[in-house]
Amino acid sequence: MNETDAWNSFLMSGSVIDYLQYKSIQNAKKSPATLEEKDEIQDKRTDNKRAEHQGTG
User: Cα dist. 14→7, 17, 20, 28, 43 in Å?
Assistant: First the structure.
């Protein structure tokens, strides 16, 4: 789906989901890198440790 199709879909439905899809396509055209990729580059951590969840009971 391209930006125009997404906008037309939103105009027809008025759905928030259709609008968010349109904005997602629009934003992807402006900056093709995803947020995760930016975070991954900036973090530069080599460890992959995570806190473990301690169950109760």
Answer: 10, 9, 11, 22, 39
HEC profile of the chain? CCHHHHHHHHHHHCCHHHHHHHHHHHHHHHCCCCHHHHHHHHHCCCCCCCCCCCCCC
pTM score above 0.70: no
Distance between CA atoms of residues 39 and 47, nearest Å: 15
Gap between the terminal Cα atoms of the chain: 49
pLDDT per residue as tens digits for the range 1-48: 899 999 999 999 999 999 999 999 999 888 766 555 555 555 556 666
Q: Which two tokens stand for residue 42?
A: 């900036």
